[in-house]
Amino acid sequence: MSTPSPLRHRDFRLLLAGQATSQFGAQISGIAIPLLAVLTLGASALEAGLLAASSTLAFAVIGLPAGAWIDRCRRRPVLIAADLARALLLATIPLAAVLGVLTVPQLIAVALLTGVARVFFDVGYQSYLPAVIGRDRVLAGNSAMETVRASGQFAGPGLGGWLTGLLGGAAVVAVQVVTFLVSAAALAAIRTPEPAPAPVPGRVGRGRLRAEIRAGLAFVRRTPALRATAAASALSNFCFAVAAAVSVIFMARTLDLSPAAIGLAVAAGSATVLAGAAATPWLSRRAGSARICWLALAVTGPFGLLVPLAEPGWTAIAFLVAGLGAGELGQIVYAIASVSLRQQITPDELLGRVNATMRVLIMGAFPLGGVVGGLLGELAGPRATLWVCGALTLLAPLPLWWALRGVRDVEQLLPG
Fold this sequence. Notes:
Layout: H1 10-40, H2 45-54, H3 57-70, H4 76-90, H5 92-99, H6 104-133, H7 138-167, H8 169-188, H9 205-221, H10 224-254, H11 259-287, H12 291-300, H13 317-345, H14 348-363, H15 365-380, H16 382-393, H17 398-404
Helix pairs in contact: 1-6, 1-7, 1-8, 2-6, 2-10, 2-15, 3-6, 3-9, 3-14, 4-6, 4-8, 5-8, 6-14, 7-8, 7-11, 7-13, 9-14, 10-14, 10-15, 10-16, 10-17, 11-13, 12-13, 12-17, 15-16
Membrane topology: Multi-pass membrane protein
Transmembrane segments: 12-36, 48-67, 88-121, 166-190, 230-252, 258-280, 292-310, 316-339, 360-379, 385-404
Pfam family, one: MFS_1
């Protein structure tokens, strides 16, 4: 018997609508802020790397206690507060630009603080989704969410690059302020009751918090599929962060692309994300819901070596678009499948802490990769840095293949 579509669920549609809006804004400002730093404020490769690193540093610093804290409370109010905090912080960027006092250090500070709010949102969101639609529909739910996010990823960079060239990056950031407010309103309208977490005797003090954090770490440590997912994701994200630190500089200064052309190149490379997100349930049925995790990375990883082959001129930039597109395709299929696997095999009372543990292990690679990418960009140049990144990406699927060899579907990993 087929599982009913989560789109028939009113509250899931609200969650989807809010995320569609905020993700679209994130993609627009995601291209606008680096361009603002590089083209308007004259950021160096190292400063661009620090900017890329600062948005994810909070995962390494507060991710574990945030997960334990989220398991103590209902998750929807946390998500709403995180959206409102990010809207307020981002609003300072266009305000500072209007007053003529915007600097790269302010961009880094805003990225750091919005990163804190993002920690609580990301951990809470991944823990909240099963409560809205049920564990039996998380793969379909994640696929729908990522399809919407991919739509923004496809349209957002091109529009963001064009708007940045037309209005300036600071004005474009204001778009995301509005989208976070819309997301908060959509979350506030959800009616599905979220059960209060079961109280745990003695749940007070630092000692208890440390014990709860250790429980999440222990579950990940003794679960081979989660250990392998953490290793593969951390390496993939490290490589992505290394590339992100120099990619705008590579496209703007090495390939001599305009802001609008950069946005279009990124959007064209991201077009495969939309198809990949929509096709993941079908691919999971064909290849296996567990096997697809490592297979997606193994098939698409080698195409990343096309990116540093790009040269000035639209013909050669086809290498750039093809490399980005293949990488985005593999990552979106892997992301949906691996998060769904985690949500299905983790007990609900541990889900917040396990999500936080995984996010710390995974996202902790971003700030390190951003700094390494910035330093490599300064020392060896953007093209050489992208070659290093492409070579390392080929190693990402190996831990997953080893842990999941012989396993086709997630159901084989469940107890009993």
